[in-house]
Design goal:
By secondary structure, this protein is an alpha/beta fold. It contains 7 helices and 10 strands.
């Protein structure tokens, strides 16, 4: 099943007329990573995607030595770097190009921008090691982005995980997707799926397969 990610929008400016002359809208001025990331909290739809494109094309990202399709705006001395790079490698295996975002003190931000076939998505990473923390982690992501990546590193119960995901979508009306990495599998879950009366059964079958 393909992941549902916000539709792409062409990053172009249309000319406009003023007093008989034709002017081209100026390209946006780069205000710094922290300010541009904070701006994402106020945008939706095509404007949100345009902002993601501005960020990934800012020149702030550098390829990570020894990695393919992973670019980073942070250093390897970051406290969470190991979790970030491990999740990024899995994303690359599933066809994504990954941009690792910094975590400025001025605002809550997500961890990744994923790009696949020209389509962009902003994801907050939650690495799952235990057996009873997913619900809390999902709720903690509210306010950072509407898409969460769960990198499952434990034998988390499928029934409990389904309940956690349902609660997350019910609590956060802006939530769009929970993307799950488990072993070699990728399981995208969106709001339409969660609303199905068969969600628990279908999800458990996919998760445990």
């Amino acid at each position: 099943m393909k992941s549902t990610i916000i539709e792409d929008s062409r990053f172009e400016f249309e000319p406009f007329e003023e007093e008989g002359s034709v002017w081209m809208a100026e390209e946006p001025i780069w205000r710094g990573m922290a300010d541009e990331l904070q701006e994402l909290h106020f945008l939706k739809g095509a404007q949100f995607i345009k902002q993601l494109k501005l960020i990934i094309n800012s020149g702030e990202f550098r390829p990570i030595e020894g990695e393919t399709n992973i670019l980073s705006a942070i250093t390897e001395i970051s406290d969470d770097f190991d979790n970030l790079i491990n999740a990024a490698r899995k994303a690359v295996e599933h066809g994504y190009r990954v941009y690792i975002l910094p975590n400025p003190r001025s605002c809550r931000t997500a961890d990744f921008i994923f790009e696949k076939k020209g389509i962009l998505g902003l994801y907050d990473l939650k690495t799952v090691y235990g057996r009873g923390s997913v619900g809390t982690q999902l709720l903690d992501s509210i306010g950072q982005t509407n898409r969460v990546l769960l990198n499952i590193q434990s034998d988390y119960n499928a029934r409990l995980l389904a309940a956690d995901i349902r609660t997350y979508f019910e609590t956060n009306q802006d939530a769009l997707e929970v993307l799950i990495f488990k072993g070699n599998k990728v399981l995208p879950v969106n709001r339409i799926q969660v609303k199905s009366p068969d969600f628990n059964r279908v999800f458990r079958k996919r998760y445990e397969k």
